[in-house]
Automatic annotation (TrEMBL):
The keyword Membrane applies. It is a multi-pass membrane protein. Keywords: Cell membrane, Membrane, Transmembrane, Transmembrane helix, Transport. This is DHA2 family multidrug resistance protein. The chain crosses the membrane at residues 25-48, 68-87, 96-122, 128-144, 156-176, 182-205, 217-236, 248-266, 286-307, 319-340, 378-397, 494-512. It is found in: Cell membrane. PROSITE patterns: MFS. Its main location: membrane. SUPFAM superfamilies: MFS general substrate transporter.
Amino acid sequence: MTAATLDGDGPAMPVSGSNPDKADLAAWLAVVAGILGALMATLDITIVNSALPTIQGEIGASGTEGTWIATSYLVAEIIIIPLTGWLERVLGLRTLLLTAAILFTTFSILCGLSTTLTMMIIGRAGQGLTGGAMIPTAMTIIATRLPRPQQAIGTALYAVSGVLGPVLGPLAGGWLTENLSWHYAFFINIPVCIALVVLLFIGLPHRKLQLHLIRQADWLGIVGMALALGALTVVLEEGHREQWFDSALMVKLTLLSIVGLAMLTAGQFFSRRPVIRLALLRDRQFASIVMMALVLGVVMYGTNYLIPQFVATIAGYNALQAGQVLMFSALPLVIALPLIPLMTRRLDIRVAVTSGFVILALSCWLETRLSGQSSGSGFVMSQILRGIGMVLTFVFLNQAAIVSVPREYASDASGLYNAARNFGGSLALSAMATLQDERLAFHSSRLAETLGQSSVNLHLYLADLGDLVGEGAALRALAGTVAREALVMTYNDLFLLVAISTMIVAPLALFLKPLPAGPAVAMH
């Protein structure tokens, strides 16, 4: 006997086995393959964070330029995620994942061999384009290969890959950087890919290519989305250094993003199946979910970028130590893992999501009280709270995104939701690079003014210090202190901004409707 579940708009994929309520070994191997692919893709988003100072030094990139190493990955993922449902119908699930896994590993090797920033960005963008296809398809496998009674287990495992991947990334990257080399943070994908390919061959059946569907694609929307997101991200990333619209390049890119948005909008009317069904945003509940997903991406990827940078520059942590700080947020996930199916059935979604965002805001607020003497221990409580908040928001919003729309639009909702979360991460990295420069200059100026107003005490301090270490060393020490304190204040400002953003969207959880009885799964 077999049970079947619709694979998006494609043909039904049967759940094999004699018992319709229990999946066979092949089905579970397929689920493991999907989750492994999603974990590898999400882990690689942040695997460079703790090793970023080392990588920047070796390839000759500045601090602000280095954010492109993370941003290029996210931007590419944003573009490909909404296309995954269509690519799946054209290529078939197994062919799509095999192609994505092999190309992802190829681009990973390119990253590991990079000697310039350009080479690294090309490799990271390639990773994002191929890795992005492995994230939503993990839920497709769960929806099509597992019977409904067992889908809650698959959903819980998927939540682990989504939450744990960005946390494990800095730790894995830090350990490899300190014990081997930063290059191995990318080469580690080679054995993972081999295991993934074997599991895909065993667990997923082959399906013939449907190349005729290429003619039916929303090419207007695809090209428009790529132009809009790509150009907008470059404007956000480089605008500060280029003096915004004083730069002809920034003006051209802004116009290009507007043209891309117009093409994407036109695709909503002229395409039978738009690449992103923006009409779903007319639904108040789904629009609220997308907005919360956007801010969730800001918190998830923004803090995972800021914390390693802080402990590396202020506390002098190496890449491994920086990654270990982030691991505290994984503790609540490990504890909650077996309880996730029960939580989704018993907890009111409005209470869970509201509480989750409030806890996330609190975790960021605790990080606004950092000082020049702060170290990794100062992040323990905030990271544990962040882990609790991530479990509540990530798990419930993931399911709410699907059940809030008609079943025939489930894949569109999944793509839009995942794209919004990743765009939030890209927006966070771009904005933080710009704000970091501006706030650092502001605080440095204010501290210099303060020192000028207390010149008598300052001269006495420098005279006493100069007697001990020499006048030149005393001045350098003072300059270092000013630079460090200005940087600490800058990080405090950025954490405060994330906390405020999180609190602003928390009331949107009141628009959510209770989840239906039984496990809801996200399909793409």
